Amino acid sequence: MATVKAIAITHNTAVDTGRHDLLTLVLSASLPLAVFVLANGVAELNGTLPLFFSPFGLPGWVGAALYIGSLPLFGIARWMIAREGHAGRVAARWIVALMAGAIVFPFIVAPLDSLMLSIASMALVIVGLAALARVAQISVKAALVMAPGLSWLGLSALVGLSFIAGWSPPFGLTNANNSL
pTM score > 0.85 for this model? Predict the structure, then answer.
């Protein structure tokens, strides 16, 4: 007589997002940068270059470094909360949406006029604030890790919005008349 015995085998892989070790921390921090580099390569093949915000007379590379430097922070915050149950996984999805928007944003700004650029940057900031609110409910430390990158996005959106406000009615007519 034959007997059958079921044996459960667990598979641990290097890209298991449920793991919480040094390897997944490094992957979580570097994967957004790798996706940005890949998007940059595809965009360059199509003749598009990313545009970055650099205020207060700072060189353009400083703005780009601060913007791109926020991506690993978002990845680390995702790593910090991904293992915290269902709420952590939901908040991690919000961070992934923020990272996707932050990666795509510099490549779509070139053809936008100032109003659409301001709307797009404010939408990205709203997604970031929603992600931050969800993350803060789970881990204040993860929210603090996200804060510098989100503050840079918020500053660029605020400055862009102030430019729009300065050139819209009722000030738009005054500014247009002064340029003659």
Answer: no
